[in-house]
Amino acid sequence: MQELGKQQKMVIGMVGLPARGKTYISRKICRYLNWMGFKSKVFNIGNYRRQICGTDCNSNFFDPGNKDASKARDECALLALNDMINYLRNEGDVSLYDGTNTTKQRRKLIMETLQQKFSEVQVFWVESICNDEDVILRNIQLTKLNNPDYVGKSSDEATQDFQQRIEQYTKVYEPIDMDENISFIKIIDIGNDIMIYNIQGFLQSKLVSYLMNLHIYPRPIYLSRHGESQYNVGHKVGGDSDLTQTGLMYAKQLGKYFVQELEGNRNIKMITSTMQRALRTSNEVCELLGIEYYSLKALDEINPGICDGLTYQQIADKFPQDYEERKMNKLTYRYPRGESYLDVISRVEQIIFEIERSRLPVIVIAHQAILRCLYAYFHEHEVPEIPKLNIPLHQVIKLVPAAYYCKETRIKIDPMTGHWEIQDEATIKKVKSFLDL
Amino acid sequence: MQDCHKSQKIAICMVGLPARGKTYISRKLHRYLNWLGYNCKVFNIGNYRREICGTECDKTFFDSKNEQATKARNECAQMALNDLISFLNSDGEIAIFDGTNTTKQRRNMVQCSLSQQCQNVQTLWIESICDDADVIQNNIRLTKLNNPDYVSMNPEDATKDFLGRIRMYEEVYQKIELDENLSFIKLINIGEDIQIHKVKGYLLSKIISYLMNLHIYPRPIYLTRHGGSTFNQENRVGGDCDLSQQGIQYSEQLGKFLLDEFPTQEKRNQIHCLTSTMKRATQTADIVCNILKINYLQLKTLDEINVGICDGLTYTQIAIQFPEDFAQRKVNKLTYRYPRGESYLDLISRIEPIIYEIERSREPVLVIGHQAILRCLYAYFHRNEISEVPQLEIPIHAIIKLTPAAYYCEEIRIRIDPETGERKQIEEYLQYERVNLLTKKKSYILL
C-alpha cells in the first residue's frame, strides 16, 4: 500500500530502560518495513559501544557520575547517529536508532543533530515502559545472558550485574514528556496501555497499528501447502484444480500430524484460501482435529492472468517475452491480467497482522507464492529472495517466535507411509545474526 | 475477514462534554462498521430525552442540582441502555451508546448493566476531550443550531444557552480514570494525543486504527468511472480493453472540468489522483493528469471486480452459458462470487485500505475507478446499507463530488458530455438527505 503523496525518510528512535524490549521492537519494525518495501536498518548503540569500548564493561561503566565513561558513551551514540544519517542519505528509507535515549538531554541532542544535518527527515519515538518484574527478569534471561558483555560469567553474576546496570539508568531516566514536542508512542506493559502523540503521515499511522498488535506469547505458526493437486502433476500454473489421490493422502496424514502435535488443544486458528485444493486439504485436517477453518480470499494463490492453465513450457512458447521478463525479475513481474509477487505481498499484509495478533497457535494451509511471502516475513528474508524461497509440497514449516527470531522446524510428511522426517534448521544461523545486529 | 471474529458482541460507549464530537465519532464508526458488514446501531441518549421530556429544555434542565430533571435524564439514559441491551441480545452485533456519560457513577452503572445483562459482550469506552475554544465554537455552529432543542431561538441565544449547558456538565465532569477498570481510548484535541488502555481483540484494534485516521478537514472527494471503453459499448464484462473514442473525449472534458474546479496550479498540485492498473482507467488518468500537470498513483486494489470465467462475455452470453450462476447473481448480487472471480463482499474487503487512506488525507482526492469499485467506495461515504451496494447508480461520463459535512456528505453529480463538454448537474442529494433526516430517520437528527 502506498501513501498518497511523497514519503519522507524517517528515523525511529527507541526510548527505555534496559531489558524493556527496545531491540525486540526495533527488529520487529525493521522486518515489517523491509517486507513492505521500505529499506530499513537498525543501528544499535550497544554494538557501537562494544566495538569501541570493548565488552568488559560492568555496571560501573553505566554510572552517570562516571565522567569518562559518559563521554565515551555519548561518542558512541553520535557515531551511530552519523552512520544512520549516511544510510538514509544513500539507499535507506527508515533508520531505527536502538538505544536507551533515556534523558531529555540525549533526545534533544539527537533532534538537534538531525535538524542540522538532515532536516528533511521525519522523527518518530517509541518508548517502551515496563513495570512487571517477572517480564524484566525473563527478558534478561532470554536476551542478555547470551550477550557478548557476559561471556565467561555465570548466569547469576551476569543477572546481578545487569540489574545494577538498569539501576544506573533508572537514576537519570526521564520518560518522554509532551513538552518535548516530539511525535511518539509509549507502549506500557506490553501494550496494556498505549499513548500516542502527534502522529503524522501514512507510515507512522501504519506503525502504530502494527505495534498495537504485538505481544510476546510464544505461540507456534504452522505453514503448509495444500496436498498435491492435478495441476501440480501436469506442471500447470493457476487453475482451481482438485487434489490428486496422493494429495488427499497427504491431507489425511497432515491431520494425523496435527492431532499428535496439538495434543487435543482445540484452541487454534486455522486459515486457508478459497481454492478447491486448499479447502479439501483443510477439510481433511479439520475433520480429524474437530475444529473449524476460515477461508479467506486474501490467501488465494497468485493470479497468473492470461497464463492460467498453461505449463511453463507453453508459457515460454506462447509468451516468450513475458517468460524472459519474469525470469529476470520475478519479484516485480506482473502476469498480464494477473498479479506480481509485490501485489501478493500487499494482499497478504492483513494476514500478517492477523497472525501477529493471534495468541493462539495458527495453521495456514495455502499456496506456494503466498507462503513464500508469509515465510519471508517471519523468517526475515530479503524481499528479492521471496520468489525463490523453497516451500515444497508435503512439508509443514513450524515457526516458533523466540527472543529475536523465529525458530524453524520443517517436517516432511510422506503421503503414502505417513512417516515424518524432522529437519531442525536455522537456530545456529539466527544466533549468529543476532551478534551482527 | 470478519467471520473469524464474530463471536463477541461489542458495546461502544462515548464519553465527553457536549460539542466534543461524540455524535460525529459515533456516526463515523456506525457507517464504517455497517459498511464492513456488521449489524451496528447508534443509541443516542439526547434523542430519547427529546422524545420523553420534549425539546423545550434550556440549560437549567442539565443542572445537576435540579433533582427532578436529573431523575428524568437518568430514566432516559436507562431506557436507551435497555434498548441497546435488547439489540445486542438479539441480532445486533455492535451497539454504540452515544451520550455524555461524564460521571464515574453513570459509567459504572452502564458497565455493570452491560456485563450483567448481555451475553458475551466486549465494551470499549471512547472519551473525546477538547479544550480548543475555536473548535468547540465551530461544532456548536455546525451542529447544535439546527438542533430541535433550538428550533425557536435565534443563533445568538441558542449559542449562549448551549454554552451554559456545557458549563452545567463541566461542574460534574470526571474524566475516565484507570481505577474504573474500563477498556478505553481517549482522543484529545481531535487525535493529536491519544491514550489507549487495555484494548484487545481484532475488531477493537481495527476501530482504534480507524479512529486514529479521522480528522475534520472538509476536503472534497471526486469519484468518476474511466471514460467509456470498447467493452462498455458492447455490454461486455471484465476484460482489459482500451478507451473508446467517446471515452477519450470524456477524459479530455473531465480534465478541463477539474481545471475549473482547481483554478491555480498550486491547488492542482495538492490533488491525490488514484486509479487502477487497468488500461481504460490509466488511459483516462493519463489524459486528465496531463491536463492538470500532476501525477497519479496506480493501485491494483482499485482494479474492477474480477469476473472469473465470465470475463469477456456479454450479460446475454452469461445467461445462456451459465444460467444457474446468472440466476444466483440476480438473487443475491452482494454475496455471489463469480467462479474463479470475486464477489462484492470480496471487493469491500479489498478496498478497505483505500478507505483508510482517503479518510486520512487532508487534501482533495480524485478516484478514477470502475463501476463495482466505486459502488463500494460511494456506499461507504454515503452511508448506504450494504445490501444496496450492488445496485447503486454510478453512471459513465459523470463525476460525483462528495464533501464531508457535519454528519453526512454533501453530494453533487455532474454529467459531462464527452463531445460538447456541457456540464449538467444530475441531482442534488443534499436536499434529499435533509428531508429524510427530519421526517423519516429520527435517530440521525443533529444533536
From TrEMBL, chain A:
Keywords for this protein: ATP-binding, Nucleotide-binding
GO CC annotations, alphabetized: cytosol
Residues at which substrate binds: R225, H226, G227, E228, S229, Q230, Y231, N232, R277
Residue ranges of every copy of the 6-phosphofructo-2-kinase domain listed in the record: 5-218
Transmembrane segments: none
Gene Ontology MF: a single term: 6-phosphofructo-2-kinase activity
Catalytic residues (positions): H226 (tele-phosphohistidine intermediate), E301 (proton donor/acceptor)
Tree of life domain: Eukaryota
Biological processes annotated in GO: fructose 2,6-bisphosphate metabolic process; fructose metabolic process
Cross-referenced PANTHER family: 6-PHOSPHOFRUCTO 2-KINASE_FRUCTOSE 2,6-BISPHOSPHATASE LONG FORM, 6-PHOSPHOFRUCTO-2-KINASE/FRUCTOSE-2,6-BISPHOSPHATASE
Name assigned to this protein: 6-phosphofructo-2-kinase domain-containing protein
Protein source organism: Paramecium tetraurelia
From TrEMBL, chain B:
GO biological process: fructose 2,6-bisphosphate metabolic process; fructose metabolic process
CDD domains xrefs: HP_PGM_like (cd07067)
Keyword set includes Acetylation: no
InterPro entries: 6Pfruct_kin, 6Phosfructo_kin, His_Pase_superF_clade-1, His_PPase_superfam, P-loop_NTPase
Domain 6-phosphofructo-2-kinase, chain residue ranges per copy: 6-218
Chain residues that bind substrate: R225, H226, G227, G228, S229, T230, F231, N232, R280
Active site: H226, E304
Taxonomic superkingdom: Eukaryota
Gene3D superfamilies found in the cross-reference section: P-loop containing nucleotide triphosphate hydrolases (3.40.50.300), Phosphoglycerate mutase-like (3.40.50.1240)
Record's GO cellular component terms: cytosol
GO molecular function, one term: ATP binding
Keywords, sorted A to Z: ATP-binding, Nucleotide-binding
Name of the protein described by the UniProt record: 6-phosphofructo-2-kinase domain-containing protein
Organism this protein belongs to: Paramecium tetraurelia
